Amino acid sequence: MRSNAAAAKHHRLIYLLSVAQRRLQRWMAAQPSSEVTPAQAGLLFILGKQDGSLMGEAGTALDLGPAGISGLVDRTAAAGLVERRADREDGRACRVWLTPTGRTALAQAKASAAEINAALTDGFTGAEIDIVARWLSSIQDKFPRDPTRDPTTDAEQ
């Protein structure tokens, strides 16, 4: 256990993760071919898998709270990429649907994501990328969105 703590301290993982995330987000947003923000692309990806998702479902998938997903949907709708519709069964709930323009933007975002993922994985073996992906995924379990939630109790429920 001690060697893991020493290795983590030596590698400055918090710093490296923060810088990597900021640089990638800035680089993606600055691309001239980018018609959507990285956050909007995330919403388009969610809707590409499940068009007509409830706003809460989309927010959960993107790790956003109610205010965050509402603002993102507002901005994405203003760009003409999605539209909000009341749920047929629950008038209080809203579903989000891709527009034809949103479908075109989704296809472009997928192509762009494939290029970025290729650049991110260049020089690494598949096994190395599997480890990085597993490590990044584990962060979501170790540090839940709700810091008051105890992740050890989730398995019991």
Automatic annotation (TrEMBL):
InterPro entries registered for this protein in UniProt: HTH_MarR-typ, MarR/SlyA-like, WH-like_DNA-bd_sf, WH_DNA-bd_sf
Q: Name one Pfam family in it.
A: MarR_2
A biological process term (GO) from this entry:
response to stress
Q: Which residues form the HTH marR-type domain?
A: 10-141
**A single GO molecular function, which one?**
DNA-binding transcription factor activity
* TM annotation in the entry: none
| PANTHER family named among the record's database cross-references | TRANSCRIPTIONAL REGULATOR, MARR FAMILY, TRANSCRIPTIONAL REGULATORY PROTEIN
**Under which name does UniProt file this protein?**
MarR family winged helix-turn-helix transcriptional regulator
Query: From which organism does this entry originate?
Result: Bradyrhizobium sp. LLZ17
